[in-house]
Amino acid sequence: MKFGTYTFQPETIKGFDFNVLRVKPETGIRLTPRNDMQSNIAVFADNVAVRNHPDWISQSPLGPAKMGNANYNIYWDIVCATQPEHRAEQLRYIADVDRHSPGIWLNSQYFADHGHCACQRCTELWKKSGLGLLEWRKKEITNYIAQVREVVKKDLVLCLQPDPVTSYDRYGVDFDDLAKYADAFNVVMFSKNYATPWYWEMLARGFKKLLKKPFYISFYVFGPGDNQKDVPLPSELLTVTVRCARAGADGFLYLTDGASQLRDFQKSAVEQVELRDRLRNYGGQPVQEFLDFVANWEKQ
Ligand SMILES: [Zn+2]
Question: How remote is the CA of residue 122 from the centroid of ligand 1, in Å?
């Protein structure tokens, strides 16, 4: 089991197995990749691309994939997943980032959500394909990921939304198809609190049953601009990690803006002596591995 950091700032931190930098988050802003941090790239969610090319935005009967369209859980602008210039540019960009860092973690490498994309190009491509709509969408995503695999020489980790049942219908994501190209998956389970770990454990069990490659789970610790009172408690993060570890996840990442919030999390986790003792009884080798990992922070 491996444990990683997942940050917006190019800062590494001791006490984790690896560090993932958000070199291109959904805002579309690009940071310089680092040779000591793996690189996370949001592919189709890209505010900058949509600002520069408003006609590239993904369309649906319920409106475009634009921040503020309350028909969807969309917090940024998303480019149509078949936009040929964006696809080609992202492919070149991913290849370049791969040359300058030890691994590629993609997210938003699929359609925006159900009903997307209904732009003129997608409608024509679909009709020409002779396939059912969902089958066509899946083929578009899988074929693009096959092209990505060609240019990524190091590890390729593909993000999945925390939806084990309808990812195919919503995003065009077929877990078995993507498993042919991914070294691992990263299921994002971001939430401002983890007060009810039962649900997250249930999702982890679902993914364990379905995925044919190892999978990480990413938890939310402290995002950019967050207030301390609005973020998950360290006790919740420890508990939810244990609950998902026993469900079979292969590793965990912790999202923060930068290194200082991770150091705060480590410090708070170390102070939770009683809770960590209690969690030892939650079952199985993976739980012990995680708690031993946290115990190592005591020495820092
Ligand atoms: Zn489209």
Answer: 4
> Which CATH code is given to the segment(s) 2-299?
3.20.20.80
**C-alpha 223 to ligand 1 mean position (Å):** 31
- In terms of phi and psi (left: phi > 0; alpha: psi -120 to 50; beta: otherwise), the region of 105 is beta
Q: Which two tokens stand for residue 22?
A: 């958000």
CA of 83 to the centre of ligand 1 (A): 7
The answer to whether the beta carbons of residues 42 and 290 sit under 8 Å apart is no
Cα(200)–Cα(202) distance, integer angstroms: 5
The amino acid that residue 189 corresponds to is M
Question: What number of other Cβ atoms are within 10 A of residue 234's Cβ?
Answer: 19
Query: Which residues make Cβ contacts (< 8 Å) with residue 60, sequence separation at least 6?
Result: 71, 112, 113, 114, 115, 116, 117, 118
Are the CB atoms for 40 and 107 separated by under 8 Å?
A: yes
Peptide bond between residue 117 and the one before it cis (omega within 30 degrees of 0): yes
C-alpha 231/C-alpha 218 separation (Å) is 15
C-alpha dihedral, 75 to 31 to 144 to 64, nearest 10°: 20
Residue written as token pair 């040779």: 35
**Tens of pLDDT along 123-178?**
999 999 999 999 999 999 999 999 999 999 999 999 999 999 999 999 999 999 99
Sequence ranges of the domains in the chain: 2-299
Tokens describing residue 75: 């917090």
Dist. CA 243–CA 197, nearest whole Å: 7
Read off the pTM: 0.97
Name the helix (H) or strand (E) containing 2: strand 2-7
Quote the tokens at residue 149.
């695999």
CA of 55 to the centre of ligand 1 (A): 10
> Which residues are registered as beta bridge partners of 4?
18, 253
